[in-house]
Amino acid sequence: DLKVAQFSLDELIFSYREMGKEEDALAYLEDVAARYFNSSLGDAALRASVPVLSRLGLGEKALTRVSDLIRRFKRTTWERDLLFEKGMIYKYNLGEHEKAEQVFLDFVQSYPDDLVSEFARLELGYAPTQLGREKTGEQRVSGVNLFQSYPNPFNAETLLGFALPQATSVKLVIYDVLGQRVRTLADGEMPSGVHRVVWDSKNEAGREVSSGIYFCRLEGDGGKLLQVRKLVLLR
Asked: Is residue 223 scored above 60 in pLDDT?
């Protein structure tokens, strides 16, 4: 099961990183990819190795791998995520800003309405979309939906989005694993449509929070839980 394999490996890599053993994580992923070549588990291992290669400063190897995976997984959600990572590798690992800009422009053109396009626009230097500035009433939404944040795991910022089928009062709140409120990102009456907001990994006092697992809750009137997503912060 590709989805389960990817989730399990992401959790494992998080544990390796928390122990300061990311080189061991890469060795493990390489071994899994070789032993389970052309299987869901092997594919997930290759996919999980891309950000690990980036964090270890192996930009050229990360670029080669992400380019190969993009060719293999065309017209899938992986293609979208991998294309964005390719731009990040060009920009932050290899310092090739012109190539990075072209990748981000291609991304915005290919996925104009995708949540991740907001991050591509931020990388291009555009101002972030503010809540209520997207002609939200013109977008058809079938039900309440809190989208998975992107990127996740993340280092400093992550983009969150939620959709409302009708105007209503909601809160978007970040909690830690102890259930303590960390930050309220949105609070009040919102029009129908899709809304986006960036969490900069800071608490209400403006201080950066530590690495770990956090939960983003979309709440209705009276604190009623509508949906929740798990976020993984890696510093």
From this structure: yes
